């Protein structure tokens, strides 16, 4: 079909992987409107749909200039339409990011630093719950779900660390999931031999471990947040399913799951509320039932952002350190 006219929005239309990006270089100059120097700046990965879109919309309403970090320019333009319809004064831009590619994470950071002198909130939201069997290994040689959900976010954070440390009260928001409670392995090299469900759980445990270790190593403000069971695009792989399983899952989505707006509540809270220094918090959208603390982090009535205790595996200092060092090794060629 006819290509959308997206020029009314500030888009980074150059492909940062194809261009030789230098700080302040031409790809950044092609963005059509100048940044707002006094505005707080937030980056939301996977911001074109679902929880990420609702997070971006809410942060724009809070006065942030929001950078949408997602793969598709067309989908980013559609997301900006939605945000602008809700808030015509919203300051929103786009820089491409594909978390299936470490090169893309590095290129995003280079483009961002060439344009912005601060970053107040880095919301690591992008993720997937499913990849096809033939796509289980990325071009970087990593298990795909772990890289999409965690490893590229680790690299992105490392590349933006100097800017985060320069910005007062900057924070990193790591989207985990109740699935982190079900992770059975912390051997990240074994995930290709596991089911996609097991890989997803391990990737979300990795996000929680990373959030805690980030505070330990850098002193930055950080939060691990569970958005809850949300009826979002993460379930799109179910669209091809048929029969009783699909019917039951459809009923669960309609009847029991949170809306994307409700699912964004913990992310928005962590991006905007005062957070304790020297301590990573875990937020859930569900109230804790004292008799069933584990079970009450699944599908319960929406309670708004609620500070809870993560699964005990997330507090394992040795596991936090091992994951950090393993990730450094995996990202070494792309690190600053």
UniProtKB/TrEMBL annotation:
Keywords: Oxidoreductase
UniProt keyword annotation of Amino-acid biosynthesis present: no
Coiled coil: none
Superkingdom, natural source: Eukaryota
Family annotation (Gene3D superfamilies): NAD(P)-binding Rossmann-like Domain
One Pfam family hit: adh_short
Cross-referenced SUPFAM superfamilies: NAD(P)-binding Rossmann-fold domains
Signal peptide location: none
GO molecular-function terms, A-Z: oxidoreductase activity
Record keyword DNA damage present: no
PANTHER family from the UniProt entry: NAD(P)-BINDING ROSSMANN-FOLD SUPERFAMILY PROTEIN, RETINOL DEHYDROGENASE
Family statement: Belongs to the short-chain dehydrogenases/reductases (SDR) family.
Protein name: Uncharacterized protein
Lineage: Eukaryota, Haptista, Haptophyta, Prymnesiophyceae, Isochrysidales
């Amino acid at each position: 079909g006819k290509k959308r006219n997206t020029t009314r929005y500030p888009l980074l239309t150059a492909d940062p992987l194809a261009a030789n990006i230098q700080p302040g270089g031409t790809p950044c100059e092609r963005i059509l409107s100048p940044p707002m120097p006094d505005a707080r700046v937030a980056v939301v990965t996977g911001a074109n749909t679902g929880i990420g879109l609702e997070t971006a919309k809410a942060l724009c309403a809070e006065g942030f200039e929001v950078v949408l970090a997602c793969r598709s320019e067309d989908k980013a333009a559609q997301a900006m339409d939605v945000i602008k319809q809700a808030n015509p004064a919203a300051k929103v831009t786009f820089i491409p990011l594909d978390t299936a590619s470490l090169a893309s994470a590095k290129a995003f950071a280079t483009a961002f630093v060439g344009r912005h002198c601060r970053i107040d909130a880095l919301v690591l939201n992008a993720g997937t719950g499913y990849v096809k069997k033939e796509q289980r290994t990325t071009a970087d040689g990593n298990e795909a779900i772990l890289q999409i959900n965690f490893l590229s976010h680790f690299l992105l954070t490392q590349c933006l660390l100097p800017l985060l440390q320069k910005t007062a009260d900057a924070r990193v928001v790591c989207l985990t999931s109740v699935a982190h409670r079900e992770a059975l392995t912390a051997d990240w090299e074994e995930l290709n031999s596991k089911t996609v469900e097991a890989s997803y759980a391990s990737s979300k445990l990795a996000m929680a471990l990373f959030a805690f270790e980030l505070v330990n190593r850098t002193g930055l403000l950080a939060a691990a947040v569970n958005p809850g069971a949300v009826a979002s695009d993460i379930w799109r792989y179910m669209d091809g399913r048929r029969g009783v399983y699909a019917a039951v899952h459809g009923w669960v989505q309609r009847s029991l799951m949170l809306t994307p707006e409700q699912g964004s509540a913990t992310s928005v809270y962590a991006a905007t509320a005062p957070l304790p220094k020297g301590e990573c918090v875990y937020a859930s959208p569900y109230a804790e039932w004292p008799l069933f603390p584990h079970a009450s982090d699944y599908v319960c009535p929406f309670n708004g952002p609620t500070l809870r205790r993560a699964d005990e595996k997330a507090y394992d200092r040795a596991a936090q350190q091992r994951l950090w060092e393993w990730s450094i090794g995996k990202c070494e060629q792309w690190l600053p």
